[in-house]
């Protein structure tokens, strides 16, 4: 099931600890059963993309989407607030936040193939070449592989990995040196991954660029593993 199959409807704004969260009812057809599933997704006021969301498990399973809408309308703000608290407790432990902050930093550093869909033509940018653009995309690809790897590692294990790489130093994501320390970890992990050399990657990218764009879009925009 992809995000294209999902229907999102804004239902309320929930205040929690001084922050406003947008609450969405998300419905989708379930191919195997032929029934409709629904859950609530919450996005913080500072969030801009779906990877900022936290969500409940599927709490509605009905014969039609209309039945889910009818049941959801009967839920009040106190219950929605409780569902938000439960979703936050499930998905944002201290260790999970460390993993998520690394993924956010990598997304910021990445060239984001989804927003830079094609290498620029040389005639459009005389000071750049196709090779320059491909190397930029290759650097983004390598960062994406690190982000994917981090997402697969148990948060407790990842915290220990970070501690070992930094030799006991702690990353304070509010401090000015957070980028430097975080990228030290990212670069160390990158050297350990079995990534293809530029020439092999470039040949594969030029043969199927859409596959790479979809991969990056899924990883960074949809907040899930490809």
Give an overview in words.
This protein folds into two domains: 3-91, no CATH class; 94-221, no CATH class. Strands 1, 2, 3, 4 and 5 form a five-stranded antiparallel β-sheet that branches. It has eight helices and five strands. By secondary structure, the chain is an alpha+beta fold. β1 and β2 form a beta hairpin.
Strand content: 15-25%
Determine Rg (CA atoms, Å). 21 Å
Poorly predicted ranges: 112-127
SSE pattern, N- to C-terminal: EEEEEHHHHHHHH
Query: What portion of residues is helical?
Result: 40-55%
Beta strand count? 5
Q: Quaternary arrangement of the chains shown?
A: single chain
Q: Average pLDDT value? A: 77
Instruction: Give the domain tally.
Output: 2
- Calculate the terminal CA-CA distance, rounded to whole Å: 12 Å
Secondary structural class:
alpha+beta
Bulk shape: globular
Which sheet architecture does the biggest sheet show? 5 strands, antiparallel
What's the number of helices?
Answer: 8
